[in-house]
Amino acid sequence: MKTVEDYVELLRDELALPVTAEDLGRPLDAVAAWDSVHLLTLCTLLERETGRPLSLADVLEAPSLEAVYRLAVAP
Amino acid sequence: MGDDLSELTRLHRDGSLAAHYPRVRALLAELTGDPLARAGRLLARLDPDDVLAAHPGTPAPLLALTGHGTLTGAVPALTAELARHGLLARVRLSPFDSWVFDLADPASDLYAARPDLVLCLLDAATVTDDLPTPWGADDVARVLEEKLALLERAAEVCATAAPGATLVLNTLPLLPETPAQLLDLRARARLGALWRRAEARLLELPDRHPHVVVVDLLPQLARGVAAGDVRQSVYARAHLSDGLLARYAREVGHLARLSTGGGKKVLALDLDNTVWGGVLGEVGPDGIETDGGYRGEAFRRFQLVVRQLAAQGVLVTAVSKNDLEPVEKTLREHPGLALREEDFVRIRANWRPKHENIAELADELNLGADSFVFVDDSAFERGLVRRELPGVAVVAVDEEPALHPGRLLEDGWFAARELTDEDLVRPARYREERDRRDFLHTFDSLDGYLRELDTTVTVAPAAPGEYARISQITLRTNQFNLTTRRLQPADVRALAADPAALVLGVRAADRFGDHGLVGAVLLRQDGEVLHVDNFLLSCRVFSRGIEQTVLHAVLRHARDSGLREVRAAYRRTPKNGKVADFCPRGGFTATTVTDEETLFRHDLAELPEPAAHIRLTARFGRAPGEGDAP
């Protein structure tokens, strides 16, 4: 996963979330079909994609999907 | 495999997954691990109502999911596992940690939803969350005792509050960090003993509560599946790992398949490189690997597992691309084979496509192709069978024979809620059936054959020892099943104890042997009307006059008892078309006809003739002990 487009594809195909790039900045509650448990799966998927551990506590506190993306690609 | 997941993803993106739901089963067939988990997440997005609107006949069991901790992660896994069997999971998720209220209160919303399966997903934190700080082994003993008492109570309440439902519990994998907190090694050992004793008591619950199934997670851990992910447990209260939930869901999928009549009965085995090593046609009987040598031993180990299954009622057949004569000769004479000619109920060795052979075997054995499990090392053969006969469960083995037994057993295709005496003798019964067929070919007419067959039929109230078999007939019989009302053993027991109801067992025998308990008739008297709630007959004994004879006996009993009429119903399913005209042929007239069902009435003025070639013994009164609790 290198780009935001890859991230959106992962959200759509792996997590089955009907989102587009415009939805990434929304508060999670405003994302269609959102459930907080998706963060657990998302964290697992991102660790698999990037090959490095993420702080689950940070992911759970992220206010938006964009914030999660930034955690995953942070140098 | 990648193609199947891509296709599923494409259907999901198109929004046409509901419309194509019948294809999903085949698309999932070869998926495991992460791809299957991903498919589950896509499928869990479907609204079951959309699928049912497009495909109203899809069996859609309601799974009530409750338990300790965050359970949402189990939903995609359950959805995928049921879809693998062509079922549509409707999952009702309870609020967080509400299992005690859900299960102990007969008026709970969970029971009100009328679930088919009640899944109470427990984990070690169910116990450890209640420990004080500091804690000792005695505290663990106390909490375990409390939880067991709650579960015992839940089992009792569930039986009455959700009759017909199955309560699924599971063992509680103990994580290392719990015993490691006790420094005294003897105390630590005591904790282990207490924990396992509690799990053993949990595993014994089904002995007293037939509607309870306990999924033992220990063998899954031995497989190398992690019990939990500590971060998910700490931060999100999700105590069981995704991998373990997937294995749990697989067991639940098989339970759901069993309760919707999808039992597997036949194992169809390829021979070359599946049962023995090498190609018989090339290396000859002396060259095949079986017994002796490393690989020979591995094949022999697989053969012994097959015999173990056969001893428990699995019908073993061979479907091989070979000439018949050398195959038969090898199975008869090869000294190194553990699996021999007499272990097979049918041997098909020819050069025709395997799916055709399986379809013909299904016909010969009077079973649906969907009761077959097919094992082959050739991806080509597996693919063809899967494409042509989507109901057949296909098991892949490869060039490593040591892995064959695990592959065959991994999916639990042949597991049953309760094996009966009838299961154990089934292979012998089917071999007798082969002799009957050979005998049939010596006659010019079916009538002459039936006369010589010398069939005796006994109809009598089911004895307590027969309830499990009666339940099994209702669960497994799909063709000769008038109303497809499925009954668990506890339901049969309850019916037999009901003074207005009568549970009749039908036994048959002929010159070739005893068929055992082959059918059931469920009657209910309401004033002057006798209702036939269901009429079932094993597919092994169709079309020999047994069904007419039993119907005659029931109608004559009604007339002799001074009743006014007999009513019956035929409820249509995709598989019971052959009994649509059973009632009319017995002299019933239709009173109500809808797409789903036809209601019938018989005025008892004129009774149908019993079959002349059958000797019938019928008894309708209960003998002492029948209808009592066993």
Automatic annotation (TrEMBL), chain A:
SUPFAM superfamilies: ACP-like. Transmembrane segments: none annotated. Pfam families: PP-binding. Coiled coil: none annotated. Residues 9-70 form the Carrier domain. This is Phosphopantetheine-binding protein. It comes from Streptomyces fragilis. The lineage of its organism: Bacteria, Bacillati, Actinomycetota, Actinomycetes, Kitasatosporales.
UniProtKB/TrEMBL annotation, chain B:
InterPro entries: Acyl_CoA_acyltransferase, FkbH_domain, HAD-like_sf, HAD_sf, HAD_SF_ppase_IIIC, SGNH_hydro_sf. Signal peptide: none annotated. It comes from the Bacteria. This is HAD-IIIC family phosphatase.
